[in-house]
Amino acid sequence: MKRFSRAKFFKGMNLTVFTFAMLFLYIPILILVIYSFNDARIVTSWKGFTLKYYGQLFRNVAIRQAFLNTMLIAVLSTVISTLLGLLTALGLENKKLKGRKGFMGLLYAPLVMPDILMGVSLALLFNFLRVNTGMWTVLIAHVTFCVSYTVIVIQSRLEGFDNSLIEAAMDLGAKPSTTFFKVKLPLIMPGVIAAALLSFTLSIDDFIITFFTSGRGFDTLPIYVEGTIRRGTITTINALSTLVIGLTLLLVVFTKRIRKSLISSF
Amino acid sequence: MEEIRIVNVSKDFDGFMAVDGVNLTIKPGELFSFLGPSGCGKTTLLRMIAGFETPLNGKIFIGDQDIVELPPYKRPVNTIFQNYSLFPHMTVWDNVAFGLKVRKTPLPEIKERVSEMLNLVKMDDQHSKYPDQISGGQKQRVAIARALINNPKVLLLDEPLAALDLKLRQHMLIELMNIHDAVGITFIYVTHDQSEAMSISDRVAVMNRGKIVQEGPPDDIYERPSSIFSAYFIGETNLITGEVIGIEDEYVQLKCPMGNGEFFEIDSTFHFRPEIGSQITVSLRPEKIAISRHKPKVADDMNVVKGVIEDILYLGSHTQYIVTVGKNNFRVFDQHKRVYFDDTALDWEEEVWLFWHDTDSWLIDELPPEDRMPAEGKSHLSKIKKQSSVSGEQI
Q1: pLDDT by position in tens, chain A (length 266)
Q2: How far apart are CA A204 and CA A220, in angstroms?
Q3: Burial level of B61, CB count in 10 A (0-12/13-18/19+)?
Q4: ipTM above 0.90 for this complex
Q5: How many Cβ atoms sit within 10 Å of the Cβ of residue A80?
Q6: Where are the alpha helices (DSSP H) in A206-234?
Q7: B321, B312 in Cβ contact below 8 A?
Q8: Which of B77, B83, B146 is closest, CB to CB, to A164?
Q9: In this complex, do B73 and A187 lie within 8 Å of one another by their Cβ atoms?
Q10: Residues 6+ apart with CB under 8 A from B379
Q11: Cα–Cα distance for residue pair A200/A198, rounded to 1 Å
């Protein structure tokens, strides 16, 4: 009897802890979503349902531009850093490569370096080279910090690769290029896709490094949001955030399907 | 059909000679095995024929063409890998079709040939499955189909049955022989399993330390081992060393020390003429020896030796006796085929008579030095030593 009630107690505890954890994680987001429909200029009180911030959001040219900038940078930096990462990881497969360890150390460094350090150093570099900051500098900065991640993700996929499959393909008459595109690439594709998704997320998400490298006139979404909140108008940002949350959820749901279809398309 | 000639091929890995000056000719259509313990260079030799390793020196000919400079994808050979190496992201059908696809064969022809091949290996009903959905034996079949569809001049098999269990292995062995008969091309088979090599091969090359120790048909290697290594590596054998004390017609007479100051004398036919007074070794297979508790009445051409049963191992189809003759140990296989004259079986510590025909032993011009033994040989020797020291005390 006692044992039973104790088990019940722990079960109850588990549930409570779980609930609090979930609430802690999601209540802020929930509040944000609710207030994006709140017909009041300040967030402290509920004044009724409205969609007007969404209207404002879509009429706001600056937001639209910032969104497009973000997407442009994200897509470009994802493509470039994934390709660079793939090539680097393949190159580093050669264990006899001179300076392999040192090079890998250099690659890992940006992972642990604080963003602000990277941002400032890039800003200094661009300043030193007298490069006008803008889209290109942001792109270079994003590729710079994404490449470390893509190399590592793709490398981990290559690690377990069974090289006898390459031999088998060559044995069956496939030239090195055919072997790569028909056997190696499809098999490491999950790693490549994971790397691409990761760098896409990192790029969209980045504020600090972009802040130091974007200069005036090229805002990404995080930069724009920060600027707007600083000026005190949070309402459209709530609406924007709600849309982003919705999009993210959709992405999570479909990621599996996307990955599967991407793999089988090879 | 072309023969394969391996001419003075060597290969080193960081100074270690994995293959050391191998010369070999494999006849067209032959099922040829490289047999040897792990690390003997058999797989390296195979990989050089496939093109995955470049020889340090030497030439490999298929017909008149030296293939050493050709990359693997330009060689008229295909390989069955030890772990099959099927492409996990392709179906059985796509795996088999791979070789034709990369050669840009027209699709109708691919379809026809793939179904033909899947038929040959009895996998036609599994064509849409992925490699992780089929069993080990089935993977094996797919690997065979995938290789043979390219019409290779030579099929290389790198320990193809190592990953299968015993029953399946025996089954696939027969299947492989049938496939070899059906396609008629040269097969080169690499294995460390002597019974596999013996049962499947037309000819076998026994390898040790990068060199070919002996080559020939399986029965030849079994019955007429050229060295102590081949005698030990293939099957079990008794090695008796002794001094040549006489040569008469086709027989040599040997005086073999029993280790306790006494000697026993045996006769053996010879295939090389040893010098009188020299020390040589005789290999005598355990199944050639008969065992009896009564002294047999035999003709002149039989050797008869008296010993004591040290150990009895019941093995189902036969019993293995270890019989000590002085400090020598004889392994004797007694087939369970006949009814014993008296229905009491032989017992431990019983005095028995061993007898065998003069022509059933084989001379080896070598003394058994322990460091030249393969692993099995070594343990066998040390076991004999241990046992003989024990029996010495008893006597």
Answers
A1: 555 677 788 788 888 899 999 999 989 888 888 888 888 766 677 788 888 888 888 888 888 888 899 999 999 999 999 999 999 999 998 888 888 889 888 888 888 889 899 999 999 999 899 888 888 999 999 999 999 999 999 999 998 899 999 999 999 999 999 999 999 999 999 999 999 999 998 998 899 999 998 877 788 888 888 888 888 777 788 888 888 888 888 888 887 776 666 655 55
A2: 8
A3: middle
A4: no
A5: 18
A6: 208-214, 221-231
A7: yes
A8: B83
A9: no
A10: none
A11: 5
Contact B79 A173 (CB under 8 A): no
Q: What is the pTM of this model?
A: 0.80
Angle, vertex CA A180, rays to CA A176 and CA A186, nearest 5: 160
Candidates A166, A167, A171, A178: best to mutate against B (most CBs of B within 10 A) is A171
Amino acid at A150: T
B338/A contact by beta carbon, under 8 A: no
Here the tokens at position A145 are: 């910090």
Chain A touched by B44 (CB under 8 Å): no
CATH level 3 topology of B229-394: OB fold (Dihydrolipoamide Acetyltransferase, E2P) (2.40.50)
The third-level CATH classification (topology) of the domain covering A61-264 is MetI-like fold (1.10.3720)
Q: Is the domain defined by B4-228 classed in CATH 3.40.50.150?
A: no
CA distance readout (Å), A140 to A147, A225, B202, B213: 11, 22, 66, 64
